[in-house]
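Hey,
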Amino acid sequence: MSGRAVATRGRARVSARDVLVTGMGFCLPGEGRPAFTAEEVWDIASHGRSCLLRDGVYHGPVHLSGAMFEERLPELPGVFVRHFTAAHRFGLVSLAEACMDAGVNLYAGDLAAAAILAGRGGVDAQVGSYQAVLRADPDTITALEAMDLFIGAELAVSPSDVALVQGAVTRSTGPCFTVSCGCASSAVQLGNARGLIADGVVDIAVVTGVDVFHVGLVRKAQRLLRVAQEADASVRSAGKPALLPSFDRLMRPYDRRADCVNYGEGSVTLILESREHAFRRGANAYGRILSQATTRDGLANPLASDESGMGLVAAVRACLGDRWSIDQIPYIHGGSDGDAVVTAFEVNAVRHLYGPSAASLLMTSQEGCFGHNGAPAGCLGVALTLLMMERGEVCPTTNCEQPAEGLAFDPVPGVRTRPLEFHHALNFTYQIGGVKSAVLLGSPDVD
């Protein structure tokens, strides 16, 4: 593993309010056990390995045992722990791992003034608690059962569930809020955290993306999709998105056989700090969050995306501003999940941005490693990109063996990394309905 750069004060145009990523933690599908650390995630992604399992459908589950949870978070009160959903547990584990990676003590007040920001997309984790309250009979339930249901509901039925618990564990007095915009959720929160730090509101921020997609829900969605496909002519019309064929094959972003999406679950947490704060405590940095922008295609259809890619182009230009140029970006971490519509607008956006030089651009996706996991996608993409930048290697696009015709960029097919020294990169994530997010990243001490 390459040594991370130590946060420094000097160098031209490097500011004390620059926003550095100093820690990353994970709770993702792994090989036999969850992937928790940057090294474990890198080992999977750099070899193009897939942790998707077939259980009626291909799906990326996180098998987090009680012992694994307690090992990382031994001091939590049992009265609350027994009410934690999978989303709470995944988010707390990735938080604990990120704190360990950053050299931050979770229990000693190191995050007492931190911003605690969460990105959430799915509602799977909340459904059980919600239904339990609806089914309860106040006339027959015992007082203890009523209190249990009340605590469980207060912790779980809101999309702010993970931020609520993380804020309590860290005892933070700083900003604490949740953003929910699908797979762009944690990317948007990285932008919010960058703004809070750059503006001097906080010196340190925790950003967590976490979602749970139960395999039972995915199986049911597959059955509904097949019913819809049997009536294909009647359910499709101009302007509606194309239906994906199935979930029972491996997702293959940028491959000519790409025709489906596989879902996953889990959590990713990043620790962000001002340069001055990181310097004072001698922290090491993976890289910088330079800017983030979110746009929408402006379509009337709430499920569609404009395949022209111009909404994504606008997000990239907003990130670059007048300070950076697209010529400085030799690598993009794409958001393709195997959906042909996504690949189409990415290709068109890249062509528009790069012109003839697009052929030399490396653009990859590792969604085939862990599944399309919703809100964690932004934090995961940023983490993987910074690991690639640090090592001077670009991870291959997982499950891409035969690149699709018409790609404007090199998707790095196969199972080996590609050498590339680079100091700037973009990370893309999207939400259904035409929402596009771009994050501009830089190495620790390069403007």
